[in-house]
Amino acid sequence: MTETSRDLDSFAVLQPAPEAPVLLRLEDVTKNYESQGEAVRALAGVSLNVSRGEFVSLVGRSGCGKSTLLNLAGAMDFPTLGRVLLDGVATSGLSDASLTQLRREKVGFIFQSFQLLHTLSVVENVELPLMLAGKAGARELAEERLKWVELADLGARMPYQLSGGQMQRVAIARALVNSPQLLLADEPTGNLDTTTGNTILELLQRIVRDRRTSLLMATHSLEAASMSDRVVRMRDGRVEEVVQR
What we know:
Elements (H helix, E strand, L loop, with lengths): L2 H12 L7 E14 L2 E14 L3 E5 L6 H8 L7 E6 L2 E2 L5 H11 E5 L10 H11 L5 H11 L15 H13 L5 E5 L7 H18 L2 E6 L2 H4 L4 E6 L2 E7 L1
Parallel strand pairs: 3-8, 3-9, 6-7, 7-8
Antiparallel strand pairs: 1-2, 1-4, 4-5, 9-10
């Protein structure tokens, strides 16, 4: 090996790993609502990036803007000022049909209250987004997602036959059924005891790691937030601090 080739090999080894591409980008986002004839500012000049395969937590008191930010990230609402870009596309510029397609194909939602339909079985709840989208193979995909969350043997049960932790696992399987690039979780452990909540958080961590899915989670719990890659502390509609874990 020549001296030059040895130098090049050393140079290659010393290079830092490339950063993961950005999936979600908020650019100087402000969101105002009207309440009793007066403008209420929910977010004020928020800028935030979430990379592919990254787990980011939003923490802060009720009313600090966490849920508003999640709604903007998932194209369920739109900024008054600034831009939200998901996979490089500005959500505010999309037609209704394009917005529906984006939400169905790129975003999965997980809620504190599970939001399962109690008239449907577990597997029917999971396959419902695929059925609404008219996709083939819905049952097979739903059963596969139940395997991901270790509930493959409970597909025939009704939601009322499950524990809180099991219902949240079903909700996670449903959120994953379209293989979304971005998961949005609003207080996903808020209705669970500490042990069950930790199990759900470990499951979400594993999904992020193994599936390279991005996760943006709003939580009051600093303990829950400690399991993420980055913690974004919010106060009065602004980003107060960003902590790398």
